[in-house]
Design brief:
Blueprint: E1 7-8, H1 17-30, H2 38-51, E2 55-59, H3 62-72, E3 78-81, H4 88-94, E4 99-102, H5 114-120, E5 125-129, H6 140-150, E6 153-157, E7 165-166, E8 169-170, E9 177-181, E10 194-198, H7 201-210, H8 232-263, E11 269-271, E12 278-279, E13 285-289, H9 297-306, E14 309-310, H10 337-345, E15 346-349, H11 357-371, H12 379-382, H13 386-391
Helix pairs in contact: 1-8, 2-8, 3-4, 3-7, 8-11
The protein binds pyridoxal-5'-phosphate (PLP).
C-alpha cells in the first residue's frame, strides 16, 4: 500500500505563477528593485485599505519590524511580555538591550493576562508587548487602561492577526504600534515580509527613516537606522496575494468549522474558543490535550507523525525556557503556571487553504482512535523525555 502524502501544519498559499510574470516583467523593465519603488508604494496603499488602517510601513520581515518599532518609541528598561509566543517576540527586546519581564497568560484566550501585567510593573517598566495569539485579539481595552494608568507604551506583536477585526474594526489600530508578519508560514505571505501599523503620519515617517539606515534625504542621517526595507519583488507578490487572501481565509474558516464539528466532545480535548466579538483569520487550529485525554500530548503528536501528519507544538518550549531567558527572575516556572500548562498540552493541527476535507477526516481519525486508547499501566513508558522532544 502506498503511503499517503505527508501533511504539514501549514502550506504556503501562492497565486498561479503565470499571474506573477507580468509583475516581474515590469520590475525587469524599470529596474527599480527596492528603496520604495512603485510596487512598494502601491502595496502599502492597497494593504492599508484592505486592513482598514491608515499608516503602514512595509518591512523585510516582522522581526526587524519589532526591533525597529521598539527603537522608534525609544523603549528602554523593562518590557512586560508573554512567554507563550514565537521566540522573535522576546528576541526583539534583547536586540534593543531591554529586559523582558514575562507575565502569565489567560487560560481562555492564551493571551497576556491583564491582571498579571499590572502585577509585573516596576519603576523600570516602559512598555507592554503582547501578542494576539493565534489571531485571537488581546483584551485590548484592559491593556490600554493599564498603559494609560502607568504611562506605558503598547507594541502588539500582531504576527498572527492579519485581517482580524474586533468590534467591526481592525485589531491593528490598538496600542501605539502593531507589527505584522508576511512570512511563508503565515495567513498572508510575501515569501518573507512584515509591516508596522502606525497611528499617525509622523510616526510612520520616523519608522520609514529608521528602516532606511536613518536617511531623511541624500546626505542627512538622523538616527541609527537599520536596513528593513521590503523589496519590489516581495511588494509585487503582496499585491497579487491580496487578491487571493479573502478566498484563502474563507477556506480556512470551512476547515476550522469541520474540525470543530468532528472533534467536539472528545473527553480531555479542549478546542480554543473562537472570540465572540471578533472575526478571526483561522491562522492556526490549536487543540489542548488535557490530562483526561487517553494519551499524552506528545504521544498524540507522535501518533500523528507516524501517519505522516506533522502537527506542531506552538508554543513549546516557552520562550522563558530558552537559555538566554531562563535566568531571568520572571522566567521562573512557578510564576507562569498557565503558560506552562498550555505549552505542555497544545498541538496545532494542519490548517491551510489547500487542505482537503479528506485530509481533515484523516487527521481527525487518528485523534479519535487515540482518544479511545486505554491509559497504559505505566504511563511514564508512554511519554518521551524532554531531551528527546527538543532533539526531534
Ligand atoms: C512568525 C512570527 C514572528 C516573526 O516573523 P518573521 O516575519 O518571520 O520575522 C514574530 N512573532 C510571532 C508571534 C510570529 O508568529
Amino acid at each position: 500500500m502506498s503511503q499517503p502524502q505527508p501533511i504539514y501544519v501549514t502550506q504556503p498559499d501562492l497565486p498561479p505563477l503565470a499571474d506573477f510574470l507580468p509583475y516581474l516583467e515590469k520590475i525587469w523593465d524599470n529596474r527599480v528593485l527596492t528603496n520604495g519603488g512603485p510596487f512598494h508604494k502601491q502595496f502599502e496603499a492597497e494593504l492599508a485599505t484592505y486592513l482598514g488602517v491608515k499608516h503602514i510601513s512595509l518591512f523585510t520581515n516582522a522581526t526587524i519590524a519589532l526591533v525597529t518599532a521598539l527603537q522608534s518609541l525609544r523603549i528602554t528598561g523593562e518590557v512586560i511580555t508573554t512567554p507563550y509566543s514565537f521566540v522573535a517576540t522576546a528576541h526583539s527586546l534583547l536586540w534593543n538591550g531591554i529586559k523582558p519581564v514575562f507575565a502569565d497568560i489567560d487560560p481562555t484566550t492564551l493571551n497576556l493576562d491583564p491582571a498579571r501585567i499590572e502585577a509585573a510593573i516596576t519603576p523600570q517598566t516602559t512598555a507592554i508587548m503582547p501578542i494576539h495569539c493565534y489571531g485571537t485579539p488581546c483584551d485590548v481595552e484592559a491593556i490600554q487602561r493599564i498603559a494609560d494608568d502607568y504611562n506605558l507604551k503598547v507594541i502588539y506583536d500582531a504576527a498572527h492577526a492579519f485581517g482580524v477585526r474586533r468590534e467591526g474594526e481592525s485589531v491593528l489600530t490598538h496600542g501605539d504600534l502593531s507589527v505584522l508578519s508576511f512570512h511563508a508560514t503565515k495567513v498572508f505571505n510575501t515569501f518573507e515580509g512584515g509591516a508596522i501599523i502606525s497611528p499617525d503620519a509622523k510616526t510612520k515617517q520616523r519608522i520609514d527613516h529608521l528602516k532606511n539606515f536613518g536617511f531623511v534625504n541624500e546626505t542627512t542621517v538622523v538616527a541609527t537606522g537599520i536596513n528593513g526595507k521590503m523589496s519590489e519583488f516581495n511588494a509585487a507578490l503582496g499585491l497579487l496575494q491580496l487578491q487571493h487572501v479573502g478566498r484563502a481565509i474563507e477556506r480556512r474558516r470551512q476547515i476550522d468549522a469541520l474540525y470543530r464539528d468532528l472533534l467536539a466532545g472528545l473527553p480531555g480535548l479542549r478546542l480554543v474558543d473562537k472570540p465572540v466579538n471578533a472575526t478571526a483569520n483561522q491562522s492556526y487550529f490549536p487543540i489542548l490535550v488535557g490530562p483526561q485525554f487517553a494519551t499524552s500530548r506528545d504521544a498524540l503528536y507522535q501518533r500523528l507523525k507516524d501517519q505522516g501528519i506533522h502537527a506542531r507544538r506552538y508554543f513549546y518550549p516557552l520562550i522563558s525556557d530558552f537559555p538566554m531567558y531562563r535566568g531571568l527572575p520572571s522566567a521562573d516556572p512557578a510564576g507562569l503556571p498557565v503558560a506552562r500548562a498550555a505549552s505542555a498540552q497544545v498541538l496545532c493541527l494542519p490548517i491551510y487553504p489547500a487542505l482537503t476535507d479528506e485530509d481533515v477526516f484523516r487527521i481527525v481519525d487518528v485523534i479519535r482512535t487515540a482518544s479511545r486508547v486505554a491509559v497504559p499501566a505505566a504511563p511514564a513508558a508512554a511519554t518521551i523525555s524532554g531531551a528527546e522532544l527538543l532533539a526531534a
